[in-house]
Amino acid sequence: MTASASGREAKRVGLQSRGQAFILLVLTNACWAGAYVAGKVALRYVTPIELNTVRFSIAALLLSPVIVRERKRIPRNQRALLMLALLALLGFVFSKLFEYVGLSLSTASDVALLIATESLFTALLSWTFFHERVTRTGIAALVVGMFGVYLIVERGFIPTLSAPGTNAGARVIGDLLVIFSLLIESGYTTLGKKTVASLPPLLFTALTITGSLFVWLPAGALSVAHSGWPVVPWEGWLAIGYMAVIATVFGYWMWFRALTTLDASVAAPALFIQPLLGVALAIWLLGDALTWATLLGGALICVSLALVMRRGARRSDGPALTTLDDLGEATP
Question: Which contiguous run of DSSP H or E holds residue 191?
Fold first, then answer.
């Protein structure tokens, strides 16, 4: 093979690799989009505590080979272990508790749209605690995104916190709990990026998910002791299995695998798949109804994310991303 032919072959293989990485990225966000519908189905039969207990127990079991293989890279000093424990509480205990209690009160379509705002919260925390440069584009993205969130929660320009009807009030409370969970998860993202950057991303995820079981297992046992063992039909177990295996284990694996090849400018547009496909699935499978305010709010969130990605693309001239935290992306 000549030198020129060898170069063409290397280029061809590289293009194939990037194409495969982009396919993984799309599949990952499609899997995460389906988690909101699956969570809504599972919550018909189990409590949010029981759902998280079973989901993360299965995920921790499947991710345990990662911990075994990379065990020599796990930090041994007390400070690092305490930080990992704090991140486990933020990322997979408190945030997931509020998120799924909120989902039980709200709709899958609301949560799919609101979940996209985590990147905005991450930017706000970065400005506040890490003194990153504040730009007019960043402020515009935050304002537009927050107004979109307001429209989704309030169903219009006029607040509906005192709207008649239990379901309307519960939906507002559910949306607010989801927003609070995203703020907590932004703290997990921000602190995780700064304090444990030396760990491989998948090992970091496996450790924090496994660490969360120190809370979820006792909490799940207390829930079962109080309410009795739940009777879960096949569709409930299918939903729980989807969240544990597809959304958590395969989702994280495909995401990190893709980000070893693609950089932010290529990966970021795939973030739109979650709110758009999540809403479509909620309407198709659960019959969620959308108002003009919900649609307008979702569109404004997409505009704000586009502004964030435009700003990130201008600054993205370094190596490919290797962690989920680099995009500040929300995960179900």
Answer: helix 166-195
252-264: per-residue pLDDT in tens? 888 777 766 765 4
Q: Which residue is listed with tokens 């508790």? A: 97
DSSP state of 325: G
Beta strands in the chain (DSSP E): none
Tokens representing residue 186 in the block: 């932004």
User: What pTM, to 2 d.p., does this model score?
Assistant: 0.76
Q: Is residue 320 classed exposed, middle or buried when 0-12, 13-18 and 19+ CB atoms within 10 A define those classes?
A: middle
Write down the number of H helices and E strands in the chain.
14, 0
Residue 89 parent element (H or E): helix 78-89
Q: Per residue in 187-245, pLDDT tens?
A: 777 777 666 567 787 888 899 999 999 999 999 999 999 988 889 999 999 999 999 99
Domain ranges in the chain are: 38-327
Alpha-helical regions (H) of 43-73: 48-69
